[in-house]
Amino acid sequence: MFDLLIEGITLIPRAFAAPIEKAALGIKDARFAFVGAAADLPPGATATRHLKLNGHLVIPGMVNVHTHTILSMVRGVAEDMGFAPAYTPGVPQGHMVREDEAVALARLGALEAMLAGSTLINDTYVHTDITLPAMADLGLRVFSCNRIHDVDFSGVSKGRWEHHQAIGERTLNQALGIAQRFHGKPDARTGVQLAAHAPDTCSTPFLRDVAETARRTGLSVQTHLSQSKVEVARIQERDGCSPPELLEEVGLLNDRLVAAHCIHLSESDIARIGAAGVFVAHIPKGNATGGTIAPTRRLVQAGARLTLATDNMHADMIEILRWGLCMGRVQTGRVEDDWQPEHMLHAATEGGAAAMGMAEQIGQIAVGFRADCVAVDLRRPHLVPHNDPLGTLVHTGMGRDVSHVIVEGEVVVEDFRPTRCDPEEVIRAGAAASAALWERARAGL
After folding, report:
1. Fewest CB atoms within 10 Å of the CB: 6, 86, 102, 205?
2. Domain residue spans in the chain?
3. Second CATH level (architecture) for the domain 62-355
4. DSSP class of residue 350?
5. Has domain 2-60+370-418 been given CATH number 3.40.50.300?
6. pTM for the complete prediction?
7. Beta-bridge mates of residue 174
8. Is 15 helix (H, G, I), strand (E, B) or coil?
């Protein structure tokens, strides 16, 4: 007897696997217990709950390895400013956000991500000790960490780069406290990666401290890397090397690093990142919005491991599948067998799971794996016909086509609505928090 039995679906159990028509999924004790054709179900199989999802495609839950949910507060504005909000005067910034505003905005961003098919998000920003559980309460898996830095962020947007040991000690100790509370729990609903903000917002001695802390605790590290020309120029001036060279020197460039962006790289940087087996958190839409493209084709060829992320201002991972595919093809000017929709699905599922240290637990729909999956309604006009279900999803699908989301065996989105919260209230609270922040930012408070 299953806890949940799903039938009538087209199933893609993992990247590079052929679709299974008229498939069924059986979930027991938060794990997949049956995966295959409905005709192969054990005779007399029953379930506590039964979902008939005819006309739906089911894929593994998507893993968004780099996002800042609170930064939905600058949606539709920061994209056209040409630089990240933390470096931009006149817009709300992290040090301005109050605790109640952080919770409201984080829940808004996490709800958006979950409704669009993310079953795990890796979020960083401020007030993480309270935003992490507030987001996880919606039902999705949340890895989160406060941004770790020793720069005084209140001066960065004004051109002041002042590093203080006390700030570094405070932010690193906050992260360790959050990890003690939320990392390594039996249900894996929450977790922590040490979020060293960026090479330019962390002094070189402080980066060494972060590397040593990661070795001592066994925690992975995520960071922004080579995301801007300003960062590259500052590290060259400060340390006489490139950002990847600096991370290698301090002991952070390794196969436990999730590096977001990786745009402004030399050929030697690409080779160095590839040789280290770094997880590249590719943010194709966000980068393209700023007029840049990460050299993902050369990074993958060099040995880097590709993952996908939305970063700021939106949380639609299905759209990111499409942007990742297209941006890679723009780099070579052609369609190739080694850059297809299934490669993007791998990056968003199995690749993301590996980056989060959960390669043997999530990222594919297989017996024994944690029961995370997403159902997409293929009966919508833009998804018909779907001669190749995955190709159709990647090229014309959207996050709003996701009808059901299951995390740890629990239906957390059903018929397009979250099951654990009132979405209208989450939206109202997020909008109010953003309005208050913008009012203070414009007043210079």
Report:
1. 205
2. 2-60+370-418, 62-355
3. Alpha-Beta Barrel (3.20)
4. I
5. no
6. 0.96
7. none
8. coil
